[in-house]
Amino acid sequence: MTHQRFQALNGPHASVELPKGHRVYAIGDIHGRLDLLLELIDIIIQDMSADPKIQNTIVFLGDYVDRGPDSAGVIDYLSKLSISDVECVFLMGNHEKYVMDLTTLSVPYEIWLENGGGATLQSYGFDIAPEKDIRPPQAVQEALKQAIPPHHWDFFESLKTSWRKGSVFFAHAGIDPTRPLDQQRAQDLMWIREAFLNSERDHGALIVHGHTPHYEPEVRRNRINIDTGAWQSDYLTALALEDGQCRFLST
């Protein structure tokens, strides 16, 4: 039975225009919760089966790692994911950027640990307390390069910063409302908060994003936020979009 914890969208929001016969599912921040990801994929596949003639795409909004217990498992699963006749699009979140930046030490190691990086290290076999590690950053950098399998690195390096279909624009964190959609900066797409969240502008597309956890999806006239804090709440949420229609699916 399909889980639909949240009702179909009510109230004012930008119209959804997708190519005829196409449906897009967007999945919010996973943060190491492989158990919830597997459950939600099953829910989505069941939802797809109701109309096998539809062309389906699944967009993953990023933040696959950190905080939750099995970041390595999430990356391994996503890097090998193949669903018959389904296009999968993987976006980069700021937490994937943390991992990639650590390999060049362009982000302070302590900052990553404070933001859930210790859980990711543990999932890759590091024996440390989740919040701290007394080893020099260079030592962790080298150990991390060795611990993460090559196909996981390939997955990180393949991630997109945004994706658009019809009248819907997908990004991990949101957009800079002062810039056109085709001139967005990667930093904003992965990190922005207040300037975007507080904006009431028409962005020229409905923005679907995560990054800022909320106890239920946030629906605004110009954006929909589907980060429902899965690593703590146990609710991993997907948004199903068809031409003129929106609805939520959740674990």
Keywords:
5-stranded mixed sheet; alpha/beta; globular; 251 residues; single chain
What's a quick, concise take on this entry?
By secondary structure, this protein is of the alpha/beta class. It has helices spanning 34-49, 71-79, 94-102, 109-123, 137-147, 150-158, 186-191, 194-197, 230-233; strands at residues 22-27, 55-60, 86-90, 162-165, 168-171, 206-209, 218-219, 223-225, 237-242, 245-250.
What does the model show?
41% of the residues are buried. α2 (71-79) crosses α6 and α3 (94-102) packs across α4. This protein has one domain (22-250): 4-Layer Sandwich (Purple Acid Phosphatase, chain A, domain 2), CATH 3.60.21. The strands form two sheets. A five-stranded mixed sheet has the order 3-2-1-9-10, with helices on one face. It has helices spanning 34-49, 71-79, 94-102, 109-123, 137-147, 150-158, 186-191, 194-197, 230-233, and strands at 22-27, 55-60, 86-90, 162-165, 168-171, 206-209, 218-219, 223-225, 237-242, 245-250. The longest helix has 16 residues, at 34-49. The protein contains nine helices and ten strands. The chain has 251 residues and is of the alpha/beta class.
